[in-house]
Amino acid sequence: MRDRRVVNSSRAEVVNFWRASGALDAKDRYTRNHSRRVTDCSLAIAARLGFSEQDRRDLELAGLLHDIGKIGVPEAVLHKPSRLSDEEFAHIRAHPERGEAILKPIAELRQVGRMVRAHHERYDGNGYPDRLAKIDIPLGARIMAVCDTYDAMTSDRPYRNGLPHNAAVKEILKNSGSQFDPEIVDHFLALADNFRAMMEADRTSSVA
Fold first, then answer.
1. Rounded CA gap, 141 and 146, in Å?
2. What is the signed CA dihedral for 33, 36, 41, 47, rounded to 10 degrees?
3. Which residue, among 48, 39, 54, 71, has the nearest Cα to 151 in the 3D structure?
4. What residues does 176 pair with on adjacent strands?
5. Segments forming the whole domain that contains residue 192
């Protein structure tokens, strides 16, 4: 009975976090549905890698919650149309650590929190917050890094239009081995047409 109460409590916390993350996406028309698109992309790559059901569930939660740490960032900073100051940029860069801190109290979400913390690490060790490199970066975070960057590049922002699909794919390929895990990039490229269709369908439904 006690274990069941713990599981039910954890699920309730996850639902609350997911709603908070959805509210964060909804605040900004430029990033609406971003977390869901990153999740769908990540799960497609994970399927090619043969993830177990538990690993798939953890990755799904990490994708949905990867930007949960931005909840503490002022909207004026999140939506600023001009260049960020050093202080504002530092505030944005702290969101992976804040995200992990939000999730850490729930034991069942520790692995999810590790992926959230690491989704801005780079394969070459020049990312943040911990400058992890290669396999020291959780596999799920390496997957999310590609999907998060693709979605960010193809999404409109107040200060620029999103890149066309082909241009974004070229950027991903150009940064294979430096920013991104080459194996993950290979799987991304194999699914690239699917991601373009997903992106176009989502943009169409958002406009409608």
1. 9
2. -160
3. 39
4. 180
5. 2-207
- d(CA 191, CA 41) in angstroms, rounded, equals 9
Band of pLDDT at residue 107, cut at 50, 70 and 90: confident
Q: Say if residue 82 is exposed, middle or buried (CB neighbours under 10 Å; 0-12, 13-18, 19+).
A: exposed
Global pTM value: 0.87
Q: Find out whether 117 and 138 touch, Cβ atoms under 8 Å.
A: no
Using alpha carbons, select from 149, 140, 181, 142 the residue that is nearest to residue 58: 140
- Provide the residue type at 70 as one letter: K
**Residue 20: which CATH number?**
1.10.3210.10
How many structural domains does the chain have?
1
Q: Is 73 left (phi over 0), alpha (psi -120 to 50) or beta?
A: beta
Q: Is 89 left (phi over 0), alpha (psi -120 to 50) or beta?
A: alpha
